[in-house]
Amino acid sequence: MVRNGQSTHVRAASAWVSAAALTAALAGCGDVGGGTIGGGEDDDVLKIGFVSTETGSSALFGEANAYVIESMEQWFSDHPVTVDGVNHTVEIIVKDSQSSSARAGEVAAELINSDGVDLVLTSSTPDITNPVSEQCEANAVPCISTVAPWQPFAIREGDQPADLKYSYHAFWGLEDVSAVYADMWSQVDTNKKAAGLFPNDPDGQAWSANFPALTKDTGVTIDDPGLYPNGTQDFSAQLSAFEGHDILVGVPIPPDFTTFWQQAGQQSYRPKIATIGKALLFPSAVESLGNAGDGLTSEVWWHPTAPFTSSLTGQTAQELADQYEADTGKQWTQPLGFAEALFEITVAAVEQAGSTEPDAIIEALSTLEVSTVVGDVAWGVDDTVPPYVAKTPLVGGQWRLDEGEDEGRNPYELVVVSNELAPQIPTGGEVEPLR
What we know:
- This protein is an alpha/beta fold.
- It is 34% helix and 20% strand.
- The chain has helices at residues 19-29, 65-78, 101-113, 126-139, 150-154, 174-185, 202-215, 236-242, 254-266, 283-287, 317-328, 335-353, 358-365, and strands at 2-3, 6-7, 36-37, 44-52, 81-83, 86-96, 119-122, 143-146, 167-170, 193-197, 221-223, 247-250, 273-276, 297-300, 369-372, 375-378, 389-390, 395-401, 412-418.
- Helix 1 (19-29) packs across helix 2, helix 2 packs parallel to helix 12 and helix 12 crosses helix 13 (358-365).
- The longest helix has 19 residues, at 335-353.
- It is globular.
- The protein starts with a strand and ends in a 17-residue tail after the last strand.
């Protein structure tokens, strides 16, 4: 893998990589000029750019990216991509967005204009996906993105989706997450008054503008005291407005929710259910709250118990999560599955296109259907979303302290408690109110 112009060493081999393949991958990555993986000297090269988010306030969204990228390199060393009968080696060039929209656009431009990639992959909130997409649109290079609700990805100005030609996105929408949230709220006896904690960023703007209408039919009223800037250190104004609200809903970045929740405890604000997007997606973020994270709820875009399998490696969702934990010593995290799905989509699109030319890849994406480790992904089949959007399954989950005494157990377990929109994903219990 080439990372910001330099090669990096490959992580420990996964279960599905042979020892010989690992040796070859390590040898290839040991040279500073390396980066191409798989096949022989006569093969062509498929160059994939990846704008990751590995540092900054949103780094938890990219926590698993390096692992997946290096695992994919190992996979491609034994399985070159076949394009119109010709084996292609794979070169993956990674650049860190540093959690900055401006930086994301800059490195996307570098990947396109300096590195000459055939397509660009990206994830990690609209702050990152949108500027990357804009660079791809300007340069007529395919972009495949995920991990951002489709509305803030697609609707960039006004109230209508942008006319995107080179950007294809796979994720759920606000209509889905609001339905999941409402189902979780219905499992707890509340006064149906919800406090809205929305930041002044693309996610917060989209959620605050759409959630009140999307939840109105459930009888829940969302009171929004106004958008706050990311990095806020004092949430006294919000907490004062939230008094008497049994439900808390919002989409803050992880460090901001940690600050808010600590101050909520100090000021004795304790809703009966707190459902927070973005900040509560990651085990390390919940662990940072100590015991105060017990019972918090959030959307779940990917879970090891989901009955999905990788179209590349044949690993199930559970096998991928288990291997990640074994190789890294960290608890599985939701972006893990979507990082791998980006490569599944890429291979399926290029092979269906029979070409690495941009227009051929885009034509293939427009009708692509592929079963991935995050579920079935298909474009052009749902007229409720823009043609460049493919929706993925969504369920709801609750974080619960794992009080078992076995050595090596994770401090928190994410239990699926709502599968109304995706009944194929099993639940592990029902919502328990905050104590």
